[in-house]
Amino acid sequence: MFVLQLGLIGLCIALLPLSYVWVKADDNKFRKLVWLTTFLTLDLIMFGSFTRLTDSGLGCPDWPGCYGTSSPFVAHAAITAAHQAMPSGPVSMVKAWIEMLHRYFAMAIGVLIIAQVVIVWTARLKRRPLHVSPWWPTGILLLICVQGAFGAWTVTMKLQPVIVTLHLLLGLALLGALGWLAARQTPIPVHEPAAARWLPAAVFGLVLLVVQIALGGWVSTNYAVLACTDFPLCNGQWVPPMNFEHGFHLWRALGMTGDGEMISQDALVAIHWTHRTFAVVVVLYMLWLAHKLRRFESLRTPANGVLLLIVIQFLTGLSNIVLQWPLPIAVAHNGGAAILILLLVMLNFRLSSSRPGRAVLPARDVVSA
Fold first, then answer.
1. What is the model's pTM?
2. By three-state DSSP, how is residue 60 classified?
3. What DSSP string runs through 223-269?
4. What are the residues whose beta carbons fall under 8 Å from the beta carbon of 287, sequence distance 6 or more?
5. Is 276 within a domain?
6. What is the set of active-site residues?
7. Same domain, 318 and 198
8. Is 364 within a domain?
9. Name one Pfam family in it (predicted).
10. Phi first, then psi: what are they for 254, rounded to 5°?
């Protein structure tokens, strides 16, 4: 019964953006729905980082509900008892609400994606195509189902670092897929075939960014942000003592080595130092790539966005160390990484569409037809 109640909560939340899309004066409601879903997914990723950074991931230690109910209101007695038994533990009423709000919003995103699937397949059956294969939104729906499974494992496996990191990467993959679909529904201002030769460089840039975000997720999920407390040195050394074997042993419990022992400070330093060092490579490459791409009119806006976000990411990353990991800056650092993914996806899409014979047409509005 409580699972049905959870579904109804997600549906009610999703009705707000669906109503907005429906009443908004726009010739292409499907495009607006996709863009709005993309924006809300970005918000969900940032709220997910807030959930993790406030140690609320186990605020409700079961899944999908909270102590077998649909709301912390109903589970008040169980939450209070758990908090009284362990006041410094992971369960409290505030943490329970943070965790459940994250789950509610995730279900609402799922409803919005289901709506997209219904729209594109209806358009296909009525022979009014949206200039996108219906299998693309269908694939996105399957992706969010996998993401939901990893969300469940995040809780049931007690925040195991590799599961939490994969949950983050799948969330970014979902954001990127929605961003590609949104770009597919948006006309490119200028068709510039000469820009197409930069596509391999942009793809490589996206790969570098994903690797760096995976390293950052590994830092965050292992709570290694403050393993190095100074900059540019790490604990007063360019190359401090490090234990890569334990630091990058993937299948292990939080705070433990693969052998079940307490993880050492040297292992946490290895995690932090690797993320920091690889960031230099990513920053230099992104600055070079964005500088080269901004010469093209169709790429100037996302390229300028990359330049701006790289500077912001450097500043927020440095602030996390100098200011001892303040919550707003840590969330902003996670959000900046997600926006960079979107910008790189947009650049890759526009470069791909710049190839001869690959011009993208605006989609027709089958929703209002």
1. 0.93
2. coil
3. T-TTSS-SSSSBTTBSS----HHHHT--S--TTB-TTSSBPPHHHHH
4. 307, 310
5. yes
6. 99
7. yes
8. no
9. COX15-CtaA
10. -60, 130
